[in-house]
Amino acid sequence: MSSPSSAAPPPPPAEQRRPGPVRFGIMGCASIARKLARAMLLAPGAAVAAVGSRSEAKARAFAEKTGLLLRHAPRLHGSYEALLADPGVDAVYLPLPTSLHVRWAAAAAAAGKHVLLEKPTALCAADLDAILAACDAAGVQFMDATMWMHHPRTAKMRELVADKATTGDVRVPFSHMKGPQDNENGYQARKINSLFSFRANEEFLQNDIRVKPDLDALGALGDAGWYSIRAILWAVDYELPKTVIALRNPVRNQAGVLLACGATMYWGDGKIATFNCSFLTNLTMDMTIVGTNGTLHVTDFVIPYEEKSAAFNMASKSKFAELHIGWDPLPSKHVVSTDLPQEALMVQEFSRLVQNIRDAGGKPEGKWPAITRKTQVVMDAVKTSIDNEFGPVDISS
Asked: What is the largest CA-CA distance in the chain?
């Protein structure tokens, strides 16, 4: 059972509602939810109306620890069902273990709640399709919680990657090849490398939900690999690769959950990308995009070194200086500032989309579900390649 916080009035009847902040319900009190609770306190157009957990005591402890109880006075629910039944909740942020996503994301959609879903969004594309179908049927907005997508640095990097004078062509067509200098193996491509790793301690490796086969069975692939795959797809404007081949020698724990792995992706026009993800090596968040004219390099693409600014380097039309004693020109450093952290910008954007539906009679934005599904499809292909002894998986169809 659940009971409202004594500090919070009951939600108004539907006919008395007026345009205002999007009212979020936080479903579950995972550690990542603390970050999103802070984001909701910072983001214009958002308010936390309710917190739901498996007990009201847990919901209250979370609301107190995050400052929500004093700032937003959310209603506190002792079950997920009670949170979804709350008429004062417009949207649900769902950070539950991946194995629970289908059940509760679909239930949220059926209850008319818009869905902001933590990554990885599902254990497989079929499960994600069930979630997206539920959202589509209910006419609610879906978005995954990949925060770096919403940082203004990401938009600035997109400008330079798309600028052929700066970065160059995605590829040099085969017909342009004239000799070994163009690549004697038969391709000349934009090359993308992505790496996300962190050195987990023994407590994490033994007890975290991300190493438990019944909770988050994708392990490092689902957690860190999600970001790396998304970065690659972002770099190629979400064009799916033709073939995915997992790298050999992935590391698993005794329960069979991946602790480290990687894959290479191939496109029909010659683009190539490789990613690695791991719970076992030093904290690294690296993305490199190499075009015919330039190279973009960012070393903190998932979480910037600093909250208020983020940098990346761009080397364009690079060559050796005279006598090969340096580079000319030197790479340029670009620093992009932001007043709000990227997770608050994500909440702000999601809230804008919900407000457009709730207050203006608009329709759900289809861009985000489509991007999420492509990420999931590639992740499925990597997992299949690993399970099939690193054979190629064709996903172009």
From this structure: 77
Percent above pLDDT 70 for the chain: 90
Contacts of 27 (CB under 8 A, 6+ apart): 52, 80, 83, 84, 92, 93, 94, 95, 96, 104, 108
| pLDDT tens by residue, 248-263 | 999 999 999 999 999 9
**148 backbone dihedrals φ, ψ, rounded to 5°:** -65, -20
| Tokens, residue 38 | 């802070």
For 374-391, write each residue's pLDDT tens digit: 999 999 999 999 999 999
Q: Which of 93, 270, 46 is nearest to 170 (CA)?
A: 270
Residue pair 223/120 in contact (Cβ under 8 Å)? The answer is yes
pLDDT at 2 over 70: no
| Measured distance CA(244)–CA(343) in Å, rounded | 30
pLDDT of 187 reads 43
Mean pLDDT of 191-198: 97
Q: Is the pLDDT of residue 12 over 70?
A: no
Residues of the domain holding 134: 14-146
138 shares its domain with 192: no
> Would you state the pLDDT for residue 209?
96
Find, among 105, 121, 95, 104, the residue nearest to 377 by Cα: 121
Task: Name the domain boundary from 146, 161, 179.
Answer: 146
Cα gap 121→106, rounded to integer Å: 12
Helices marked H in 66-121: 68-71, 80-85, 101-110
Read off φ and ψ for residue 362, nearest 5 degrees.
-80, 180
Q: How many domains does the chain have?
A: 2
Q: Which two tokens stand for residue 339?
A: 């007043």
Is residue 334 within 8 Å of 314, Cβ to Cβ?
Answer: yes
Beta bridge partners of 23: 47
From 89, 119, 146, give the residue that closes a domain: 146
Q: How confident is the model at residue 11 (pLDDT cuts 50, 70, 90)?
A: low
Active site residue 119: yes
Q: Which among 113, 119, 271, 374 is annotated as catalytic?
A: 119
Mean pLDDT along residues 227-243 = 97
